[in-house]
Automatic annotation (TrEMBL), chain A:
It is found in: Endomembrane system; Membrane. The chain crosses the membrane at residues 6-23, 30-48, 68-101, 113-131, 137-154, 166-190, 210-229, 249-272, 278-294, 306-325, 337-355, 367-390, 410-429, 449-469. Residues 131-423 form the NADH:quinone oxidoreductase/Mrp antiporter transmembrane domain. It comes from the Bacteria. This is NADH dehydrogenase subunit M.
From TrEMBL, chain B:
Residues 131-424 form the NADH:quinone oxidoreductase/Mrp antiporter transmembrane domain. One of its GO terms (biological process) is electron transport coupled proton transport. Coiled coil: none annotated. The keyword Transmembrane helix applies. This is NADH dehydrogenase subunit L. The lineage of its organism: Bacteria, Pseudomonadati, Bacteroidota, Chitinophagia, Chitinophagales. The chain crosses the membrane at residues 29-51, 81-99, 111-130, 136-156, 168-187, 207-226, 247-265, 277-298, 305-327, 333-353, 373-395, 415-438, 458-477, 509-527, 605-628. Residues 65-115 form the NADH-Ubiquinone oxidoreductase (complex I) chain 5 N-terminal domain. GO terms for cellular component: endomembrane system; membrane. It is found in: Endomembrane system; Membrane.
Amino acid sequence: MVLLYIILIPMFGALLSWLASARNIALCRWIALVSLLCGLLLVTVLWVSNAADPTPAGHWMYNWQQPWIPHFGISLHLAMDGLSLVMLALTFFLGALSVLISWREIKFKIGFFHFNLLFVIAGIAGVFLTMDLFLFYFFWEVMLIPMYFLIGIWGHERREYAAYKFFIFTQAGGLLMLLAILGLYFIHGANTGVYTFDYFYLLNTPMERAVAQWLMLGFLVAFVVKLPAIPFHTWLPDAHTEAPTAGSVVLAGLLLKTGAYGILRFVLPLFPAASHDFAPWAMLLGVAGILYGGQLAYSQPDLKRLIAYTSVSHMGFVLLGAFAFNELAYKGVVMQMIAHGISTGALFMIAGALYERMHTRELSRMGGLWPAMPAMGTVTMIFVMASLGLPGLGNFVAEFMILLGSWQANHIMTILATIGLVIATVYSLRIMQKVFFGQSERQYALPDLGLREWLIMAPLVVVILWLGVYPQTVLGTITNYELRITTFSAPHVPQAESSGRVVPVSDSSFVINHAP
Amino acid sequence: MLFLIPALPFFSALVLILAGRSLNKAAVSVIACGSMGIAAAITLVLGLPFLQSGEHIIVQHLWTWMQAGSFTAGIDLRLDALSLAFVFVITFVGFLIHVYSTGYMAEDADYSRFFACMNLFVGAMLLLVLADNLLLLYFGWEGVGLCSYLLIGFWYKDPANGYAARKAFIVTRVGDTAMAIALFMLFQYTGTLQIQQILDQAPQLWAAGNSTIVLIAFLLLGGAVGKSAQLPLQTWLPDAMAGPTPVSALIHAATMVTAGVYLIARTHVLFELAPAAQTGVAVIGAVTLLLAGCSALVQTDIKRVLAYSTISQIGYMFLALGVGAWSAAIFHFVTHAFFKALLFMGAGAVIVAMHHEQDMFKMGGLRKQLPAVFWVFLIGSASLSAIPFITSGFYSKDQIVWLAWSSVHGHTFYWIAAITGAFLTAMYTFRMVFLTFYGPKASHHTPHAPGNSMMIPLYILALCSTLAGFVELPHTMGHVTLFSDWLQHILPAVQLQQESTALEWTSQLLAAGLTFLGIYIAWVWVIERPDGMLRFSQMPFMRWLRKLWFSGWAFDALYDEMLVHPFVRTARMNRRDMIDRIYTTLARITEWLHNMLARTQSGLLRWYIMGVVLGAVVILSVLIWRVYV
């Protein structure tokens, strides 16, 4: 049940804050904030209690199932392992901060804004928890529509264009995924007689190789669009740039991660052999994203657009690591999801704070801001360094582990990706130079970080440093994920009677059984 | 206790970042210098047992940093004789530089930011040399890169400083990339990044000359040349003097540029297994020391002369590493740290006295006005140009010159390069001394003498630059080998191909003679007949050569053309993302089709009838065609 609460809390928060907005705007903001903090607290409690009593690797920490449409084998099936746990923690953490960052920025339709924001969060939480593919598709869409409103209503100048583009891209990918889900459903049903959308039943569906490849591509396209990898990335710079700050933070920090999560949770375990065949191409896409995104980031004149393209570059590492098929790279990928969520989220918040002060995103109109805002400069420096992968900050741990792992899989791709670190240096340092260093051309009245902004920035800085020097907090939590990786890392898994059968042991936990 | 050595500077940096703006300058100085002083004191305490024997080792495990599958890297520190030599220089010279900075930066508005960065710099460097595994070493390695960026661009208002700072970070990062790949390979083959385990396993894993180990060693060398500003990644260092002078002293003497020397010495086992890479180290050292020496000869900016001289002196260290004279390289590192810190801070004293004038041609005659600075600067210069017997630079450099030829890996070419370098060094050093302190007064400024906080570190360093040499004397003069014996447990002794006292004497005398010749030529050039030299340097070929040397052999222009411009040009061209074009074109075609079709819905009946008739005709024709043909 506790898993259901994780999804329901932001949903109720969404409704309540919308209702409250009719009477009291401040109350509406507070309800939104408190409900997300409750969610964060709940997840933290779950994390701490599981860290204190480590279950044997392979266990699911929580599992909850209720029939929904039994006729079609659809159920409300939620389950949580370490991967879901850390992603949920990130979701509520960034979610609460995005309410705070919108405190002054959003000035109209405040109730509806918070309704949408919290509904996106609820959708994301659902995505990270569902173990039923039909329900998964449902939450996938739940994320999409409120996000469309967030961009389209509260965005900047070209918000409608950006919102449409975002919607069409993700929707096209989503529909392909729906086709693949249905295909998988019928194939599994035809072969075993059990028609079900349940993830654990579908895990070892026997099928022909060519069919598996097509289905795998169907899933992959949806996730790769979301991630995004080139050549499907072009919705991202527009959406990130035009969205309000909270929208950009949720997009970069969380929505992109659902793509990465989907690859780890669905593409690789459902279609191990097909993924393995496709791995070189996926890695190539990843590396191309790292280099191409990096170069585009360097050339952008718009601060938010620059940060948006750095996401393309950083998410390339996710694709590279996910298809390296070893544990080091996998853990690196999860670290990258967390660290990139924090660091890029923070950079978007800084861009938002600058926009609030200067009403521009143009780099050419900034410069020389350090004397006026040394504290913001210092914080920006930390996240810029995180973005270029400086050791001591979370992103380094992630990128190094990914590269170390992918080296075992493919030398040339790894070398190219490592060169991407030099490009990351080039574009990251450009941010500092253009915004904070040099001479200030015009005299803005610029206050440094205020109390509310400190409340936002301080936790982000602490977390990114913590991830950099003690990443074991996350790496230790996701240990149970590796078990399944090792079972499908062999290039040609014999499908029918192979590894990784899921046997329900009790109503609250699942064990992954390595049958010989 | 060991962890306190890097932790103290880090902690002090943290305090200064968080609370720096609310502290007054005195408090900032106490925190910054105090942490450095305590770290230096702890180093001395921990170093005492090492005096009895170089075998002593202290290892400290702090916590597990990353662990995944079989991969583990800890925050583990390890102090042995080699790291102790580095830690001692870093904390001790670093402390003196900090004290000096309290005077040098006294007027600066960003006082606490400066010291926060300086502390961070020292902390990162300490982490680098104390790291027990290569990943932690890489942590310090990159941290040093960050701090160099922060400090070179310290005066951020001038975009040129920002450019120099970015250049330093990016160029060294190119080397770091090579090093990162070396780490990937080492992990692939040895399954660990722990340095001692790698060094123990390497001889079993690879035969000497095995292509894998050669590749690994070359990649490590790539990292080393980046940080140590050796060919072909030396271009960042001359620009790095954009930062405040104490920063240059820190970069050139105690931190940063010596990191490459440390890395190669630390992984010497790998280089011994890879003769090709070791030869590469020696050749790079020999060539770099000559190229940089030539460039130093024609500079006008006093700090630029010193910058090129650092590149050249690190070249000597690389040469020593390349011929297997490991301890000679470390010995030269120690003496170089003393006299180069002395020279930079001496130059800083001159620059402050001259109201931030750095052009040597606008100085002159300062000997009378700044006698104390003159004397310490002269001691440093004497050490740099290796004046026999009385300077530490003589003993350390002389050892390298001799071993460049007599070691089993030695070669006549190396020896010629080293001895030519000695000649160049003497010439450019004393050209600098004469231009700055001798001759007519060139400026109308009245220089003001620096205060005690700046002068006392200089006196101490002057003393060290003289005395440090006596711990290691050549065969021909007393044969003291305290330093190399002490390091012997970590770094094997150099193997000689022949020992000949007569040849050693010849080499030493020749080197000494060339040094004095260099000083004499500098004297003639600057003091005796400046007009003649001017005419000589105005000859067409000389002008071309001068320009080439002045620009550091035009490496900057080359890299700009080859790498920077193409990258920037394609980035600008593709600013709007050509892939997006595909989608927008698709959208435009759809829209166009929509417009075309929309036009058919004109509401005019005759057009609709026309359409129906035309459609019928087409369908009928097709039917007839299919039936009858």
